[in-house]
Design brief:
The structure is a single chain. By secondary structure, this protein is mainly alpha-helical. The protein has one domain. Helices cover about 50% and strands about 5% of the residues. It is built from 8 helices and 3 strands, in the order αββααααβααα. The chain has a 3-stranded antiparallel beta sheet. Helix 2 packs antiparallel against helix 5 and helix 3 runs antiparallel to helix 4. The longest helix has about 35 residues.
């Protein structure tokens, strides 16, 4: 039989908090956009170092909640704008009529506008007490889901490492087709060949050994006249 905490999570009751200004706000549930805003707080602030230092997803629920609360609180000073955006996205004015504008009566529409105007003013620069109280309520509400998500991510990363998917694949030997493609794409070697562009020496007939004398005829001596 599910215990009381499990039943509460299946049918959660709205968590409300009264600010020092007198406005009562309702804590909404963490969804995708709010989760991304929370990650911005942690990654822009002191989160990464503190996660490595001791955020244990395998710890007991109470210990994990305490660790997460400290982690978020210590990340806020270095992620001011991200923290305020996350806080505003996790709250809404209590008592606001949640219907499309087209279905609101004039009094309902006027009341909603007044509540949202005060909400935007009070949470633009909230009191420190309100900031700490809201962060604590949000973390306690969402810690079980965040811890379960963290365990799931750790299991996925462990499987990722076991199967070697975190390492770069070794380069496979090229196939014959790849080798042929590489060879055809490489420029062919152009070794210097004997030039045939200029004049070539005239071919001469080799002489026999016996005809090695000069082919020039001797000039006959001039005959003297008596």
């Amino acid at each position: 039989m599910p215990d009381e905490n499990e039943l509460d999570r299946l049918d959660p009751q709205p968590v409300e908090h009264k600010l020092t200004t007198g406005l009562t706000v309702e804590i909404v549930r963490l969804r995708t956009r709010q989760f991304f805003r929370l990650l911005r707080v942690l990654t822009h602030g002191a989160g990464p170092a503190m996660v490595q230092a001791g955020l244990d997803f395998q710890a007991g629920a109470e210990k994990f909640t305490s660790q997460l609360l400290v982690l978020v609180a210590m990340s806020i000073p270095d992620a001011e704008q991200e923290a305020i955006g996350f806080l505003q996205s996790m709250c809404k004015p209590a008592g606001v009529v949640d219907k499309p504008d087209s279905q609101l009566t004039k009094p309902e529409k006027a009341a909603n506008e007044a509540l949202w105007a005060q909400f935007n003013t009070d949470l633009f620069n909230p009191e420190l007490d309100d900031l700490i109280d809201l962060i604590e309520l949000i973390v306690k509400q969402e810690a079980p889901e965040l811890q379960a998500l963290g365990k799931k991510l750790q299991s996925m990363m462990a499987l990722f490492r076991r199967t070697g998917q975190d390492k770069e694949p070794a380069e496979a030997d090229p196939s014959p087709e790849q080798m042929a493609s590489r060879e055809s794409s490489q420029p062919r070697s152009t070794s210097s060949a004997a030039s045939t562009g200029g004049r070539t020496s005239a071919s001469t007939t080799s002489r026999s050994v016996g005809s090695g004398k000069s082919s020039r005829q001797s000039t006959p001596a001039a005959s003297g006249t008596g």
